[in-house]
Amino acid sequence: MKQYLNQTTKVCSGCNSQNELDARFCTRCGRQIYEQKVLSGLKSIKSNKTLYSILIISGAINVILWFIIDAEDKTLFTHYFSEIKALLWITLHGRLIIGITLLFIGTIVIIINKPVLFLISKSVLFISGFLNIIIDFLAVPALKEYDIIIGLDIILNDLSNLWLIIGFLQIILFSFLVLKKE
């Protein structure tokens, strides 16, 4: 900001010509000259809305797919096991919780637009992607508590591999948002 205040001229974003500091329009091409602070603020708002939209969409996908894919597993396990232990409960309900969390955080950060929330949102997107990937693998130790042994091959061949894809997509989106120049 100090650098901008010490400048004696403004540079036109259209033709790169020098203009007086108090100029509102470029003397060469006539384009309106905006202050740098306003432009960077607009870019920041746009990139924040992109992230928040991604959070809300990811959350909605998690919740919807949980009802389509994982709710059947939940019904099956609660039918055969009278007591659901913690690890199995996390395996059965984890993605629903992830989805609701993403929806909640995405909505909150839209309402309260603060830079710290932007950083938290990026972290939440990464963590949710990571959890979507590992939750299926928690089924191995969760079912072992009931003396049921399953191999990783069963998990990898399961229809819910869609969760692995979603998890990787969330991590890729996180990487894109982190590496993207503001």
N-to-C terminal Cα separation, in Å? Answer: 17 Å
Structural class: mainly alpha
> What overall geometry do the principal axes of the alpha carbons give?
elongated
Order of helices and strands: HEEHHHHHH
Question: Helicity level, as a percent range?
Answer: 55-70%
- Average pLDDT confidence is 77
Number of domains: 2
Helix count equals 7
**Main sheet makeup:** 2 strands, antiparallel
- As a percent range, the share of strand residues is under 5%
Strand numbers in spatial order across the main sheet: 1-2
Q: Which oligomeric state applies?
A: single chain
- Give the uncertain stretches in residue-range form: 1-6, 37-45
Rounded Rg: 24 Å
Count of beta strands: 2
Summed up, what is this model?
The protein is mainly α and 182 residues long.
What does this structure look like?
By secondary structure, the protein is mainly alpha-helical. The protein has 2 domains: 1-33; 41-179. The chain has 7 helices and 2 strands. A two-stranded antiparallel ribbon has the order 1-2. The radius of gyration is 24 Å and the shape is elongated. 22% of the residues are buried.
Question: Would you spell out the secondary-structure blueprint of this structure?
Answer:
Layout: H1 2-6, E1 9-11, E2 18-20, H2 36-80, H3 86-111, H4 115-134, H5 139-144, H6 152-156, H7 161-179
Antiparallel strand pairs: 1-2
Helix pairs in contact: 2-3, 2-4, 2-7, 3-4, 4-7
Primary descriptors:
182 residues, mainly alpha, 2 domains, two-stranded antiparallel sheet
